[in-house]
Design a protein that fits this description.
The chain is mainly beta and about 100 residues long. It has one domain. It has one helix and seven strands, in the order E-E-E-E-E-E-E-H. Strands 1, 2, 3, 4, 5, 6 and 7 form a seven-stranded mixed beta sheet that branches. Strand 6 and strand 7 form a beta hairpin. About 25% of the residues are buried. The structure holds zinc ion (ZN). The site of zinc ion has 8 residues, from loops.
């Protein structure tokens, strides 16, 4: 684990999780680990870059982004695709500790 670049978990909604959304919008949603600001960016990497790891489809390389609030650059990884409510619940159970921003 690198200590000099913060990572955050991004969520890329697809399939059933994205039914209420414009299909042209393929966005990653994330929470800034520095200030807690919720952010979105266009997903750049294709679904072929995602691999099943620990029961989730993840992009282990991740994508770089910059927080629009505090301007810190961050790495969004892993990127998780959520297909249904059950998967979303499982995701929250696994990653809830990561999603809470640290205060330092
Ligand atoms: Zn921030």
């Amino acid at each position: 684990m690198s200590l000099h670049s913060k990572e955050t978990v991004g969520v890329r909604y697809t399939g059933w999780a994205a039914l209420n959304r414009d299909p042209q919008e393929d966005m990653l949603e994330y929470t800034c680990p520095y200030c807690g600001q919720h952010g979105m960016k266009a997903a750049r990497r294709t679904h072929a870059d995602y691999h099943f790891t620990d029961g989730f489809l993840q992009d282990l390389q991740g994508e770089m982004a910059a927080c629009r609030s505090c301007r810190h650059s961050l790495r969004i990884a892993p990127v998780v695709m959520l297909h249904d409510q059950g998967e979303k619940r499982r995701f929250k159970a696994v990653f809830s500790a990561v999603l809470v921003p640290s205060k330092n």
